[in-house]
Design a protein that fits this description.
Strand content: under 5%
Structural class: mainly alpha
Radius of gyration: 52 Å
Number of strands: 6
Helix content: 55-70%
Strand order of the largest sheet: 1-2
Distance between the termini: 168 Å
Shape: rod-shaped
């Protein structure tokens, strides 16, 4: 590191020259003189040694504590050395560089002893025994002198110290009195009972000193006084709130001083001559550092080190270079002193090891060279302390793990050049990490994250990022409190503008996500943010950097969060995590960093998102269970809905997996609108499934195989959407490979549900499967169940049932066939046009399917259908009319009749009554029981459709002339006339006219037999008369 001596010429101290023995009382002067000759004090170096603390007193001559006495006044007349380790120091890092190769060559042992620690490359080989010395004195102060000192100190407590002379006198009196502690019980009792007064006095003196300048040795004397008490095991900076405040105060009084350039310019002229502020600053700082060292010399439990670091922590992170340098130098010297006098005992109370390591590592990469060098030296000592600490505290049960850690540390240090090692934060992280427990790792991370907040020093930000990445990579899964870490990271996103640092943060999150132990924890925290995500969090999702093998795991865990929401039962409100995951998936798809995983999980992603679309239809954000406090200052926009997140994620998924044609089909056919509709969602699902099957059959087949187990999970909406997609994919030839239990059996279960959408999907699936020859026999067993569906009120169910029955009508047994024909006959005239038409089609197909031997069994049903078919040939719906004529032809062939050509005339009957007369004449000849035909026809006079009513009335009137008169006479015609008379009041004129004509014909048909009988009698009578 180069020479560490920084000396300046000495100049006389003006204020010190003002102090003389004559000012003080005789007893004070005598005490101080005695103290000056007996108390050890370090001067040339910060590290107290045996010679510096011995009674012989070369140290006392260097410090010069007497009032007007040579040793005390000569303080600034000697060369002053900066508190830095020299190249010749046995603890120097540079010293070890020369011995590094020799150390590496030596065999390494895994025994956990001090000798093992020194085998670590770069660590010194000196003894780790406690080197602290006890103070020795020529003799104790007399009781009279001690009492006089106590009396004067009490006066200082009660009075007000105005002049610098009084302040210095008070401080030196306290120091003198502290030297009697080991042997004088009276003094010991006085000091311990007046600790609060001493602390108050010192605090007052420090507070009265100017903050922006240094012209008085008072601060220096305060530090020396505290040091003297510390050597006597009286710690004025520990133990109570007022002592802690004093510690903060004295620390700030030195660290927060302006830079040395400001302090030394201009020089202040004192009455005694020129005053060297630089020299005074250095001595004051040296006294401050020695004060800190005095606190750790006997710190066997590291409790004092923990408190020291607590107070130095904010200064080590200061934005001001001179403050950061002072804090780093102080901390390094403390670590060096502790390292030299290391003698640890359980229990250890050092609670901030992880944070210390992190801050020192960051400082090793500080842009200020002086800070980096000091931090490197401090880190060197800290590594040795850490090794010793871990050897003492390790659990005997984990002996092997500690051995492995030691071995790993050794291997890492052997890989690096020591100078490069201490100047590279991420390598420091690798070495220290093996010894840090989970709580210390957390401290390390949090301290490093604080470094990311250092906006004034971009270099520190980058170093912090590298340090974190190295630590997370190395520590694997030993972290705790990951949610707290993620919270700090997310809070930092909006404050960091450097692209490189932002990417480092993303990499850190990615590393945590990649560890299976933390994946769910990190995802849960990232999801607990307002949606839509702000640009910072959106950028984080989009720029995740994950190793290829881990991408699928991360995307799968994110997907499972959403699927679990669908698995739960009916809830009053949708879980917020469902909406958050959907938005997160959208951002991941946009970023396209997890492309391979997206393709691999495409079936699961697509189906889960479609299910989410179904769940969010008609919902607003008020229907979502938003965690309290998530939107503290703003209300959720009404334009933001759970549905919009699900739709945009689904669209982006298709685009990122190159399903552009499928996307285009959905857009052209308004598929996205269908998906969003409450009543047409399944249509949108079917459209997308067909588009995928048509354009990308490989992906479609993957989805099909996924859906086999997928259909068994989730709630009704989950199952319904899955079923809708699955059914459409049954069109694929791949479906024939599925065992019946996965298709037909499942479709049968759906048929038996009291749920019309599931029945529709089941019937649609059966329609597709009937095209697969292998499935026909299994489906045929379901025909009785399907026949029952012809009575359903849902038109789609009936039509699909008819389509399936059409496929099996040729192979039906006679009983099933006749049952079906009766059911179909009841559907003639159904108000649902398609049901009406397809029932006639299936009826005609049924007649064709009747075997020759079974014709007699269905002949009556065929005859009964003739009149309805004939009348429906006049339906206003052309398709129904045409189909009626077609089925009528089939019936005629079955009966071996040849219908008159008038039957096929498309013109309305009332326009050409002659055609109707021809038809009635044909039926009059072919049919028996014409009164029953009249009754059947008359029922259609009440039909809702005018053409049917009109045709029925016209047919009744014209057919009546072919009715057997005896039959009419038996059954009467009153019931016919009553119905026709009601029609005379119908609002439709054409119907009234046709009804009046029919009524006339009926009455005429009744009257004709009587008139004929009268005419016959007259003719007979006339024939008997003579001509």
């Amino acid at each position: 590191m180069g020479s560490r001596h920084r000396s300046v010429p000495a100049v006389p101290l003006g204020r010190e020259a003002l102090i003389s023995r004559t000012v003080l009382s005789a007893h004070c002067a005598t005490a101080l003189a005695y103290w000056a000759a007996s108390t050890p004090r370090a001067s040339a170096h910060l590290e107290p040694t045996s010679s510096q603390r011995s009674h012989s007193g070369s140290h006392r001559q260097a410090v010069g504590r007497g009032l007007g006495v040579g040793p005390r006044r000569g303080l600034l007349q000697e060369e002053v050395v900066m508190p830095c380790a020299s190249d010749s120091d046995s603890g120097s890092v540079d010293l070890q560089l020369g011995n590094l190769e020799d150390i590496k060559k030596q065999p390494s042992s895994l025994e956990l002893t001090d000798s093992d620690i020194t085998e670590i490359p770069g660590l010194p080989r000196e003894s780790l025994t406690d080197t602290s010395r006890h103070l020795t004195h020529q003799g104790p102060l007399s009781e009279v002198v001690a009492e006089q000192l106590i009396q004067s100190i009490q006066e200082f407590f009660n009075g007000e110290l105005k002049s610098e002379l009084e302040k210095l006198t008070a401080l030196r009196s306290l120091s003198s009195l502290s030297q009697t502690l080991p042997s004088d019980e009276t003094t010991e009792s006085f000091i311990h009972s007046h600790i609060a007064d001493i602390v108050h006095l010192l605090s007052t003196l420090v507070e009265e000193e100017p903050r922006q300048s240094l012209f008085s040795p008072v601060l220096q004397e305060v530090f020396i006084t505290i040091t003297d008490f510390s050597y006597q095991d009286v710690y004025l900076l520990f133990g109570s709130e007022d002592r802690a405040d004093l510690f903060s105060l004295v620390t700030k009084s030195v660290i927060a001083l302006p830079s040395i350039k400001i302090l030394t310019h201009p020089q202040k002229i004192m009455p005694g001559g020129s005053y060297n502020s630089q020299c005074l600053y250095r001595q004051t700082f040296q006294a401050f550092v020695e004060m800190l060292q005095s606190l750790v010399i006997k710190d066997r439990h590291l409790e004092n080190l923990d408190i020291i670091f607590k107070h130095m922590d904010p200064w080590l992170q200061s934005d001001k270079d001179h403050e950061r340098e002072r804090a780093t130098t102080s901390m390094t010297q403390v670590l060096k002193c502790l390292f030299k006098h290391l003698s640890l005992q359980l229990p250890l109370r050092f609670q901030r090891l992880g944070r210390v390591v992190a801050l020192m590592a960051l400082l090793c990469g500080d842009p200020l060279k002086e800070v980096a060098e000091e931090a490197a030296e401090g880190t060197h000592y800290l590594l040795h302390i850490t090794l010793k600490l871990k050897c003492i505290t390790y659990d005997k049960k984990n002996r092997q793990s500690l051995k492995r850690a030691m071995k790993k540390c050794r291997e890492l240090l052997e890989l690096y050049n020591i100078k490069q090692f201490y100047s590279c934060p991420f390598r420091i992280a690798q070495v220290f990490e093996v010894f840090l427990n989970s709580n210390e790792l957390y401290q390390f991370v949090m301290a490093t994250l604080d470094g990311l907040k250092n906006l004034k020093h971009p270099h520190t930000q980058r170093s912090a990022g590298e340090l974190l990445i190295a630590l997370v990579k190395t520590a694997q899964s030993r972290f705790e409190k990951v949610p707290e870490i993620m919270g700090v990271i997310c809070a930092l996103l909006s404050t960091i503008s450097q692209p490189k640092v932002r990417q480092q943060i993303t990499n850190i999150v990615s590393l945590f996500l990649s560890r299976p132990k933390y994946t769910d924890t990190v995802i849960d925290h990232l999801l607990c943010h307002p949606v839509p995500y702000d640009r910072h969090l959106a950028e984080l999702w989009r720029t995740l950097e994950v190793e290829l093998p881990k991408t699928t795991w991360i995307l799968w865990r994110l997907l499972r969060k959403l699927q679990k929401c669908h698995d739960s039962g009916t809830q009053e409100k949708m879980a917020y995590v469902a909406v958050a995951v959907t938005d997160a998936l959208y951002e991941v798809f946009v970023g396209n960093r997890l492309r391979a995983a997206t393709f691999r999980l495409f079936p699961q992603l697509l189906m889960t998102l479609l299910v989410q679309v179904h769940h969010t239809i008609g919902l607003t954000m008020s229907d979502v269970a938003i965690p309290s406090g998530l939107y503290p200052e703003q209300e959720v926009s009404s334009e933001v809905t759970p549905l919009c997140f699900a739709i945009q994620a689904t669209k982006t998924l298709l685009l990122r997996t190159f399903c552009w044609q499928e996307f285009n089909i959905m857009e052209k056919n308004k598929g996205w609108t269908l998906l969003e509709g409450k009543d047409c969602h399944l249509q949108g699902v079917s459209l997308l499934a067909n588009a995928l099957l048509e354009r990308n059959h490989l992906l479609a087949h993957k989805v099909m195989y996924l859906l086999v187990p997928f259909l068994n999970r989730g709630n009704d909406k989950h199952k319904l959407t899955s079923a809708g997609f699955f059914v459409e994919l049954l069109q694929s030839p791949v479906a024939r490979r599925f065992p019946s239990i996965y298709c037909v059996a499942r479709l049968k279960d759906w048929l038996l549900l009291e749920n019309n959408p599931f029945k529709i999907l089941a019937l649609r699936g059966l329609c597709y499967l009937t095209r697969q020859g292998e499935m026909r026999e299994d489906i045929k067993s379901l025909l009785p169940c399907i026949l029952d569906l012809l009575y359903e009120s849902d038109e789609k169910i009936v039509l699909l049932a008819i389509q399936i029955l059409l496929q099996f009508v040729r192979t039906m047994d006679f009983t099933t066939l006749t049952t079906m024909m009766r059911t179909l006959f009841s559907l003639f005239g159904d108000v649902r046009p398609d049901v009406h038409r397809f029932s006639m089609i299936l009826f005609g197909a049924s007649i064709k399917s009747v075997k020759y031997t079974d014709k007699k069994g269905v002949e009556s049903q065929v005859l009964d259908s003739l009149v309805p078919l004939l009348l429906y040939s006049q339906d206003e719906n052309d398709a129904i009319a045409a189909e009626s004529r077609q089925v009528l032809t089939i019936c005629a062939r079955f009966l071996k009749w040849k219908l008159p050509q008038a039957v096929y005339c498309k013109a309305p009957w009332f326009i050409n009554p002659s055609d109707v007369a021809t038809i009635c004449k044909f039926f009059g000849k072919k049919c028996k029981g014409k009164v029953d035909i009249l009754a059947q026809t008359l029922m259609f006079s009440k039909n809702a459709k005018l053409p049917i009513r009109r045709a029925a009335v016209l047919f009744v009137g014209l057919l009546s002339r072919y009715v057997d008169h005896s039959e009419l006479g038996t059954k009467g015609t009153d019931w016919i006339e009553d119905d026709l008379k009601k029609l005379l009041h119908d609002p439709e004129p054409s119907l009234r006219i046709v009804a009046s004509q029919a009524l006339f014909r009926i009455q005429k048909a009744v009257a004709e037999p009587h008139s004929r009988q009268t005419l016959y009698g007259l003719r007979k009578l006339t024939g008997c008369l003579p001509i």
